[in-house]
Amino acid sequence: MNFVASIGVAVIFGCGFYLMLKAGLINRVLALLLISHGANLVLICMAQLTPYPLPPLLQKTALGSLANPLPQALILTALVIGFAVAALLWALVLRLGKESK
Fold first, then answer.
1. What are the beta bridge partners of residue 66?
2. Any idea of the CA torsion for 92, 94, 100, 101, to the nearest 10 degrees?
3. How many helices (H) and strands (E) does the chain have?
4. Summary mean pLDDT of the chain
């Protein structure tokens, strides 16, 4: 699964950088959003999530089978910040489109 996810990350980053090099404001906004989603996917892949992890506070078990809350918190924070940046960028694009007419 990590190989497939790493290929997906490479494709997402490649598409983002390709759009970044093209002319146009909308292409650059889409590129920034793709790159941020690629970074989120990198964080998910680095977390090495295991199926059916145990909560860390309920029982004493081996450390390998416990859920790690830090990557989940990082991803949630990155998604919220990415959504706010996307909303700001689209509002700026719409504002620039109205002023240019």
1. 54
2. -160
3. 3, 0
4. 85
